[in-house]
Write a structure and sequence with these properties.
Layout (H helix, E strand, L loop, with lengths): L1 H27 L5 H13 L3 H9 L5 H12 L2 H14 L9 H14 L7 E6 L2 H13 L4 E6 L6 H15 L3 E6 L13 H5 L3 E4 L20 E4 L3 E5 L17 E2 L2 E6 L2 H15 L26 E7 L7 H12 L3 E5 L3 E2 L2 H12 L3 E7 L5 H17 L2 E5 L3 E2 L3 E4 L3 E5 L3 E2 H6 L2 E7 L1 H15 L2 E3 L2 H5 L3 H12 L5
Parallel strand pairs: 2-3, 3-4, 7-14, 10-12, 11-17, 12-13
Antiparallel strand pairs: 1-8, 2-5, 5-6, 6-8, 9-18, 10-15, 13-19, 15-16, 16-18
Helix pairs in contact: 1-2, 2-3, 4-10, 5-10, 6-11, 11-12, 13-17
Length: about 500
């Protein structure tokens, strides 16, 4: 009997030793952020064998070949369109809009890291309700005459998803070029055959970058989280809404859905169109489906009514070393003199963002952060609560939105600058997902966003440090435990 236990103990020690060696080899063979490296070592060490199954889903990067595809599409051919935009920007008459030094440095940052050129003349509408957003979007799609380009993380096979598909099929039958790019994981449950009729009518649909089936591609990370619509190259949409019934408040689990999306008419659509074309050409395998002639997609746009909203669209993703949108967030936070107001469903910032917020708070800047009152991902939400409590202890004002689920990703700085887009204030948006944001420089539009924020406060509960301390020990444990895995959530 004693010999049997000795054998079992020896086998277990050998398994643990092999597991440790495999964990070190697995994590260090890929270039990762140091915090993510240690987090994965913790998972692989504490959960032998099963940890490797988790890593297969969450830890592996897309192949180098796939990353090169999207990196090359960022540069090739679109370079001509970028140069045309650059020349138009340089040669256009100087408008009344004056760029302060703060704007200038932010603009130059994005021009340098993402070739995101400033478009000064745009008409922009803000949507916070899904019903109003999709009513306007479907109307614009119905009026399309040349092209409809759509890119979403989620397009569900539900009521609103089927309404959209039917409308796109009608436009394809009319001869309008229709292209739909979706994330295969975000649109889980929607088979490629969902778009068969659209294809038969002359339209196109493709999963983003990955394989056609999640059964053959287990990677949950590195998803296309962008939300882009460009109609005739003139009307664009960017923000936080996906396509699904839950985004119209139809799912009891979430209740009313609170999000923020922008409708843009003007030159800023150049950046949205450019990003869509790059993502499309990196994703499709059939060369006949490539977009290889760009001039019709970048028309000259005259905005009526003297609209002068200035903005840049900035895309970021794991194909490059620069975390472009995070750098933009850092630039905005560091530029703040009076206040920083943030809405995010997931508050899991890295050390650089945390330090920037700390500096702002202790420099007398009014930092307010609004998060949801309910989770859609338990571990993620508990980590969000941990960081919210940490910032409350530093002096930030933390609001929990009570009227449904808050999914908006907005940042407003001093009433002068704002960001609206798909990127959350978390590791996943900074390092793992493909994201796109609009950075806006316009007093009136930023004032509208800030008024919406103030209105949302009426539906919030202020989470003081005392209220956080009143939480149960079990809840606090879950928050601390979830925080350990922040770099990989």
């Amino acid at each position: 009997m004693a010999m049997t236990w000795d054998i079992i103990r020896t086998i277990l020690l050998v398994i643990i030793f092999i597991n440790e060696l495999a964990a070190i080899f697995t994590v260090f063979r890929e270039r990762k952020d140091i915090s993510a490296t240690w987090a994965w070592l913790l998972v692989l060490t504490l959960i032998p064998v099963i940890g490797f199954i988790i890593y297969a889903f969450l830890g592996r990067k897309p192949t180098q070949k796939r990353m090169e595809r999207i990196k090359s599409q960022t540069r090739l051919k679109l370079k001509e369109a970028v140069e045309r935009q650059r020349n138009q920007f340089i040669n256009m008459p100087k408008p009344k809009f004056s760029i302060t030094q703060i704007y200038r440095r932010t603009i130059l940052l994005f021009q340098s890291i993402d070739e995101a050129f400033l478009s000064r003349h745009n008409h922009v509408e803000i949507f916070t309700d899904g019903n109003e957003l999709f009513k306007q979007m479907f109307e614009d799609i119905s009026n399309a005459t040349q092209s409809i380009h759509m890119e979403f993380y989620t397009i569900y096979n539900d009521k609103i998803g089927n309404q959209l598909r039917t409308l796109l099929e009608q436009k394809a039958a009319e001869g309008v070029e229709v292209r739909v790019l979706y994330d295969s994981w975000g649109s889980m449950g929607v088979k490629p055959s969902f778009y068969d009729n659209l294809r038969e009518l002359g339209g196109y649909a493709s999963p983003f970058l990955m394989t056609r089936s999640n059964f053959f591609d287990f990677r949950i990370n590195y998803r296309n989280h962008r939300k882009i619509v460009v109609i005739d190259g003139k009307i664009g949409y960017i923000g936080g809404f996906n396509i699904g019934d839950q985004y119209l408040g139809r799912l009891p689990k979430f209740g009313p859905w609170r999000d923020t999306h922008l409708r843009v008419i003007g030159g800023a659509n150049f950046g949205l169109q450019r990003r869509f074309i790059g993502d499309w050409n990196a994703s499709v395998k059939n060369k006949t489906s490539l977009i290889d002639h760009y001039h019709p997609y970048f028309p000259q746009i005259k905005v009526e009514g003297g609209s002068t909203v200035a903005m840049q669209t900035v895309a970021s993703g794991p194909e490059g070393d620069l975390e472009k949108i995070k750098l933009g967030y850092l630039r905005l936070i560091n530029a703040a003199q009076d206040h920083i107001w943030i809405q995010t469903p997931y508050l899991i910032p890295d050390d650089s963002i945390m330090d920037a917020l700390r500096v702002a708070i202790h420099s007398g800047v009014d930092v307010r952060i609004m998060i949801p009152c309910k989770p859609d991902h338990p571990f993620v939400y508990r980590a969000t609560e941990f960081y919210a409590k940490t910032l409350a202890a530093e002096g930030a004002t933390i609001y929990k939105y009570q009227e449904g689920f808050l999914h908006a990703k907005t940042m407003m700085i001093d009433g002068r600058m704002a960001s609206v887009g798909s990127a959350n204030l978390d590791f996943r948006s900074f390092k793992l997902n493909f994201e796109i944001n609009a950075f806006v420089y316009d007093l009136k539009l930023v004032d509208q966003l800030e008024k919406i924020f103030v209105e949302d406060i009426r539906n919030c509960r202020v989470m003081t440090l005392e209220r956080f301390e009143e939480q149960s020990r079990w809840l606090k444990f879950k928050q601390y435990f979830s925080r350990l895995f922040s770099p990989i959530l």
